Amino acid sequence: QVQLVESGGGLVQPGGSLRLSCAASGSIYRINVMGWYRQAPGKERELVATMTSSGRTSSADSVKGRFTISGDNIKKTVYLEMNSLKPEDTAVYYCNAKLAPNFVNYWGKGTLVTVSS
Fold first, then answer.
1. Cα dist. 42→21, 74, 84, 94 in Å?
2. What is the pLDDT of residues 64-110, one digit of tens each?
3. Dihedral over alpha carbons 45, 49, 52, 57 (to 10 degrees)
4. How many C-beta atoms lie closer than 10 Å to residue 102's C-beta?
């Protein structure tokens, strides 16, 4: 059994910052990739940022320069530092992990981020 637990969501004003955390636990041999996706009301889930076990990161064009993904392999934790938040960043943010050996997908339950004045 593998669990991903997110934390750090909430209400923030435009231009503000938030930091999301996601901790993985359970029967984990190795995490190949961890990352963040988001789903806004009425829209499909989209990739925000990912980080491989070797530390390689990638992010969506819409968040480049504003969001930073980082992680701790030992703690099996991934973070998303979000700065200069915009109302269009409002969404439920989901943690994702792809585990060895077959890149099996696991999802957290999500944490709501609301950017509003």
1. 25, 37, 23, 16
2. 999 999 998 888 999 999 999 999 999 999 999 999 888 899 999 99
3. 150
4. 8
Question: What is the SS3 assignment for 88?
Answer: helix
Sheet holding 77-82, edge to edge: 2-7, 18-26, 77-82, 67-72
Q: What DSSP character marks residue 16? A: -
Amino acid identity of residue 84, one-letter, is S
| Pairing of β 10-12 and β 104-107 | unpaired
User: Do the bridges between strand 77-82 and strand 104-107 make them parallel or antiparallel, or are there none, so unpaired?
Assistant: unpaired
Read off the pLDDT of residues 4-45 as tens digits, 9 standing for 90 and up: 999 999 999 999 999 999 999 998 888 999 999 999 999 999
Looking at this protein, which amino acid is placed at residue 8? G
Q: How many CB atoms lie within 10 A of CB 75?
A: 10
